[in-house]
Amino acid sequence: MAPFCCAPQAGSSAERDRYDAVKQFDLRQLSQVAKLPNHSEGYWDRFPDRVIKRLQTERAPAVQHQSWRLGGLAAAAACGLILGFILWHHAPPANDTFVTLRDGPVLRELLRRYAGRLHAIVQDASGLHTQLSKDADVSASNPIWLEIRDGDAHRVVVTFSGQQIRCGGTDVIVLSDVEGQIILVGDGFFWSHQISAGRASKVEIRAEQIPGNRVTSKPSFPL
Amino acid sequence: MKTVICMLLALPAAVLSAPVDSTSNPHVAVFDLHTDVNIDNQLGVTNAGRLIANMLANDISVLAPLTAINREAIQRQLDGRRVDLLNPIPPADAKRLGQSLNATTLVTGSIFIAGDGIIIAAKVVSTETGQTFGTMVKSDGTTPIVDLLSKLSMEIGRAALVQQGLEPPHWSPATIVGSCKQGSLISHDEIACVMAVDGRAVPDEVNQWSRKQPVLPGLHEIFVRYYDGTTTAGHNFIFGAKPGTLYEVRYERQPPLNPELWIEDQASHQPVTSKVAVGIDKPRPTLPLIANGPFGHTLRKYNSEYVTPPPTRPK
Q1: Closest chain B residue by Cα to residue A178
Q2: Residue range B60-88: average pLDDT?
Q3: How many domains does chain B fold into?
Q4: Which chain A residues are within 8 Å of B131, Cβ to Cβ?
Q5: Threshold 0.80, pTM exceeds
Q6: With 90 as the cut, is the pLDDT of residue A201 above it?
Q7: Structural domain of residue A118, as residue ranges?
């Protein structure tokens, strides 16, 4: 175990060679023992859903640490705020999945899994889907959260600046500027917070840049 | 707008681009912008996307430390292929394109008509990482297109510098003033002044000759007026204003010859336009002999009846 924990002090070249040989031997042995688990068919299809569920359940214990009085007060205040928000906007609040998508942990988890291949994560009426590239050819640009209401269809999309998505019946490019302002540009389609033109005027869009755009290299637990 | 665009079309593409140097600062390649026939018709030109890309490259070239890649070289390299804003550029393709053009940054864009105004969106892609930013400018129908492009070029410049890990500087506007030679008891003052900037007239321009007129960095159309109390002459100059530079309208006249007009950098005294011998407009029918006398002041003022107005542009 020692060779894995700390590097040897600078010594003779013979000592270094012996150390390297031991390390390579141990690594080979380890890679033979630690084999990839065999997953059932459809495991990767259900992977995004499992990520979301897990992230939602991982949040719950943090709340239980609070005392019941504080929890009650916070819950009452939250209920009041939510009720007020509903009455004000006359629209239902976003569900947990949408919020989880906007907060970024799902994105970070999937980015670790599909490094350089993730075009977009789409949540619609049929569930959560990932749009993956065959090769690792997706650039590391700012992640963007989009909520699109096109008639009765309601979707939440998490994608990156420079990627193409389907919106308003056409292909559009999603872009964010240096300060995080989002624009959507397509053939006869333009949308930004300030102005929309062409087919974009028929679609209701909300867009935000997801904070903490750098993906950490923290290891994830197997799902 | 049509007048400006037609005048700019006459400029050779080589003038609208800077030579590539070997420094590590951003080298920006601007590709033709995406347009359609409706936009060409609205702007009154045949290829608005190419024209605006030329103007944008010129505006970027004045923003130190950026360098704009020669637009002709870009056309040659592409050889008919299109790099379009509407298609994502994978990092490997961006890198290949960057190497072939010696560019660190690729810029594509699209033009939209929204009501009375115009929207220009641009995509800025790093050739090293593929990192992509977007930016946009919009006019309300009164902003000259040259000012829109100046703003867009500065936004593109900021994005290109951020992608390179550099701190974007503040590009302050340039300014331009007139020049004057005091007259004597028997002669008027001689004044060369700015009459209009990008089609916007400067009010009371002769009396305001020393007032600094701000111009955003980039290509601009400056209508310049010469006036000596008896004759007036004017000329339209197009030049690229560098950030923070003070320019001066200059004149030279050997009577009875026509005056020569030009614009120069006030600090270096280097002309930034060619010297143009300008035709005299109609002489005034009645002139006071003593211009600086008790009644001379009002008569010295510019009389718009006898000068050619600056080019008008449709909204």
Answers
A1: B159
A2: 86
A3: 2
A4: 139-141, 161-162
A5: no
A6: no
A7: 47-209
